[in-house]
Every structure is written in structure tokens, then in C-alpha cells.
Amino acid sequence: MSRSRRLTSTLTAAALITGALAAPAAADPVPADAQRQQAFAAAAAEFGVPESVLLALSYVESRWDYNAGTPSSTAGFGPMHLTDVAAAPPGGHHDDGTEDPRGDTARPELHPQAPPIDTSAPALRTAELAARLTNVDIATLRADPAQNIRGGAALLAHYQRELGGTGADPVDWYGAVAKYSGATESTAASAFADEVLAVIRSGAEQVTDDGQHVRLAARPDLDAPSRATNDPETECPPGLGCEWIPAPYADLGGGDYGNHDLGNRPESQKIEYIIVHDTETSYDNTLRLVQDPTYVSWQYTLRSADGHVAQHLKAKDVGWQAGNWYINAKSIGLEHEGFAAQGTWYTEAMYRASARLVRYLARQHRIPLDRAHILGHDNVPGTIPANVRGMHWDPGPYWDWAHYFELLGAPFHGLGQLPTGMVTIKPDFATNQPAFTGCTAVGVPCPPRGSASVILHTEPRADAPLLVDVGLHPDGSPSTMHISDHGSRVETGQQYAVAERRGDWTAIWYLGQKGWFHNPASKPTAVSTLGFVVTPKPGLDGIPVYGRAYPEAAAYPPNITPQAIVPLQYRLPAGQWYSLGVIAPSEYYWAVQFDATNHTVVRGNLRYFQIQFGHRVMFVNVDDVVVRPSFWRG
Asked: Cα(510)–Cα(498) distance, rounded to whole angstroms?
């Protein structure tokens, strides 16, 4: 080979080597389960937002979940909760069905009507601004998680520029985060920003509902003291930013008054329950309702987007909220803002604020943190047979009871599959997706979504009919998968006596029937637990169950008409066992006049046990049953 050819070859090889060294290495593909983490990093870099702030803000809104692209209870979409009220038209709640929220058969039924819903608030239309800032259409921002994250980052950066904020420390973004909440009250905005910074301090990690692994490293050194304060009139834990918006106690004339009853709890009656409601109407509309003396009332309202809390009644007073006067007189009601069609999801901000409030109330009133005392409205029984069918069913099957109780510091634990005679319902929320219908229209399948509910069948097979709830289906027809039909449905945290086990199926006693649910050891939907169970005394073929624990007639003073002790349409047969929840004293709070000095608590000698009889709790006469530890039957 000639010298020139050798030189050419050498130069060519050198060029190839140099080019290979200079060319950028092919980027490693992002793992399928890390794409959301990468989307946060990319959006933070693109818009100049601290990644920790973007991650924590999204966590407080949605826990980084996608929620199948469906709206939250305030029309928020995606991990960043971009709101688009036009895509999520409002529904209704307190005007549905036939329930009288007061639930006192000593007074005429109360069925007030709500005013129209105002959907003009800017906080319900943040997707519009995000679309302008990113040049991405609103439909894509709703449906594409990565674009949704970009939209949220663009919004946050926009708010920071508007406020003239500078700096890369998370605390420097406090004002922008507060504005992202959509709150118009400074204390509410501060409480939201405090919560976001608290998440940065503690860190977070989880696998989202669509299988994405996301992590926020903890920053325990972050110096960010809470700035939110409570209105001095409120009964709230420090730093929650509670607002006092009182419900009116007003004389309406003609013996009528509203919208609650004055009381002297807990001196007069122990507060035994906390009731979780979903308004299914906007927060602003809810406030208008509770301030209307002709409407009804409850103690607290929680806003979805930022978890802001407004208190309307003192704990001592009795709200007209749960449809059962016995429960009303012994409970505190929390209305959680709901918006759009039934079956929407609930924000992390609201879960966290609600849990902080309930922890505080439970400590103040010595209320056990379990599902016998922390009830959904859908767990409250009708008072008499005629009222059973019309009772409300909120917060519904998409309220995440397991996560809620984790935030309460009282997670549901079990003993595996040991034969203890009792189980606690505990499915995996994200992957447990019953095929409900009717979220948007009768018969239309609901979007697949995690649920706290487990479906019961008449036999140990998935295609067996559902159980019969004679209260909801007086004609004896089986229950259905319609979203509001809970006649063959149990919920996370509820406890039931075991009737039988066959392979991967477990049967429990439920409404006088044996209900089967799929419970494989490899992926259990219930765990064994210990407790007490009740059954009819020997010699009785069955006993009545009641919707309220009222005193015997002889306990009433001459000026008060005794309330009838009316059994419900169900019956507890001999040979069946039901979990014992509460020892309930027989009490009736007589409060039918505006003059509160005449109000009287009637107490009797009768005693009742509260049991988990179906989806709702019910009561049995102590004298009708025997009590055993659950393992006695195990």
C-alpha cells in the first residue's frame, strides 16, 4: 500500500473514531413506569418551576393519579387538577330521593329545594388559562397526563410571574402555590400552601392508579412554619385555616323554625358519630344552602380543590343532616364538596384536611376511629320502614376509606386468613374496580375506577345473582350494579361475621342472608379480625332490627308523646351472627319547638347494640341477643 493510501486510511479511521466519540450517546429509554416522574422533571425544567414544588402540589391535588381521565368532585382533571366545568356539568344531592335530612318523625318531613348552581368561578376554569399558556387544547390537557402536568407547571409559573416572585427555594413559591389553590380567602390559600410544603418536608412515594412509580425525596430541613390561622369562633385543629360561616337559628313563624336545633352536647348527650357526606353540588352553593334558614344544616363543609374548611354549627348543636334523628342528635356532620356527575373522585387536599379535622374531633369527643363510629351517610339507617328506600347514599363507592383511615392514623389491619369468625373488608382500592352503571345515565357503564366496595353474590361464583335488599327492592328482586344500589355491597373497614369459606370465596351474614365475595389468599379483599358478634337468644327463631335506639314509652314525661319503637322490614334469623359495633343507650332528643329551654333528652332503660347488618348499620335490643367473641365461632 502506498504512503498516501496509508495516510488516507489512517485519517479516515481517525475521523470515524473521533466522530464516534463526539456523537451523543443514545438516550436510555424511560422505563414504562417512570414516565410520569420524567414528565414532572421535564415540565419543571421547561417552565422554571422547582421540581419538588410541582411534585408536592400535584400530590396534594391528586396523589399523582390519572383517575381514568375523569373529573374530580370539582371538575378537576389529571394529576394537576386542571378544572374544566364545561366538561363536567353539575349534579344534585340533597334534592334527590325522598330523605328528610332531619329524620324526626315527631315533626313534618322537610324537603327543601336548592337554588341553581353558579359555575362561573375562575377556580372552576383553570384549564382554559393553561391551554393559552401552553398552546395545547383543553381536551388534550384533560386526557394526556404529561400535557396536564405541563399545563399545571405553566399555571404555577404564570402565578409566580404575576406575584413578582423570585428564587428557587420551595418557600419562595409559597404565594404562587397559594394562588394555585383557587382560594379567595387568604387563610384558606395559606393552609393549602402549608400542606404542599409539609409534603415536601415529609416526602412521598407511591405507585399511581395507572401504574406509574413517582417519588418525592423528603426535605426535613425545609424551614416553612405554618402561616394559616383559624377563625377564633371555629372548633378546629391549629393551622387548618377554618372559617366561621354560621347556620341561622331562626323563627319562621307558625311554629316553624330552622335550620338546626340548639343543644348542649356533650353534657346532654355523648357525641358518638362523625358522618361523612358528599354534597354533589358546588362549595359556594353549599354555603348558600347552609345559610338559608329554610334549608338544612351540618357542622362543617370542606372544599375540594384546596381542602378549605368552613364551620357552621358548634359541636354542642344538632344539625339536620343524616336523615335519622337518633344519629343526628349524637353526631357531627361533615359535607365534602361534590361536583359533576355521581361517581367522581375526591382530591387529596380534601382527604387530608378532613382527616386532620376528624382526628381533632375524635380526640375532643372520645370517638373511636373505626367504621362503627365514622360512618358514611350511606351507612346511616332509615328510621322506619317507609324511610329506608329514600335514604341517601353518599359519599358513594369511590370514597377511599382505606386511605382516609391511614390519614386518620388508624389504618385497617388484619390477621391474614386465620379462622377468627370475623373479617374486615379491605380490597386494594386501585385495582378493585366493580362494574358499576349509572354514573352519567341509567344503564350506562361507569368509567373503570378504584373503589372501596366489594360485591356480594348468592353463591360462590362471579355470575351468581346479587342479594336481595327488601328495603331498596320491596318486590323482592335482586340488587343491581347501579351506582346507588348498595343492597348487595360491603365497604372497606366494615366488619362482618363469617358464615362459610369455600376455596377463594368467603361468605358473610348480611341482611339475613349469606353473601359470597371473592377473597383469594393471593389477593384478599378481606382480612381476618377479632371482635364481638351477636345472635338471637336460644329459643328465638329470629329478632327484629331497628333504625333508631329509642326509649320505651314509660320513659317519656307527660308533655312528650312517646316515639314508637318500630322494627324495620328486615329480620335477624336464628343461627346468624353479626358484628357488634356500639353499645347504644336508648335516647330521644325532644326538640320540636323554637324555644330551646323546652328541649329535653328522654332516656330509657332499654339498651341496644349497633350491628353491621347490611351496608347500613342497624340496632337490636340487648335483651334479644347473646354476645360472643368472634373467635368462639372461628
From this structure: 10
Q: Which three cell numbers stand for residue 561?
A: 308523646
- Kindly state the helix (H) or strand (E) to which residue 9 belongs, with its residue range: helix 3-22
CA angle 52, 54, 56 (to 5 degrees): 65
114-165 pLDDT, tens digit each:
666 667 778 889 999 999 999 999 999 999 999 999 999 999 999 999 999 9
The answer to whether 403 and 412 are in contact (CB under 8 A) is: no
Gyration radius of the chain over CA positions: 28
Residue 174's alpha-carbon distances to 195, 228, 356, in angstroms, are 11, 12, 21
Residue 26 pLDDT grade (very low, low, confident, very high; cuts 50, 70, 90) = low
In the chain, how many H helices and how many E strands?
13, 28
Q: Is the pTM of this model over 0.85?
A: yes
Using a 10 angstrom Cβ sphere, with 0-12 exposed, 13-18 middle and 19 or more buried, the burial of residue 229 is middle
Single-letter residue type at 554 = A
pLDDT in tens, 210-264: 999 999 999 999 998 899 999 999 999 999 999 999 999 999 999 999 999 999 9
Domains of the chain, each with CATH number or no CATH:
32-84+125-216 (1.10.530.10), 535-632 (no CATH)
Bridge partners, residue 313, by sequence = none
Angular region, 367: left φ>0, alpha ψ -120 to 50, beta rest: beta
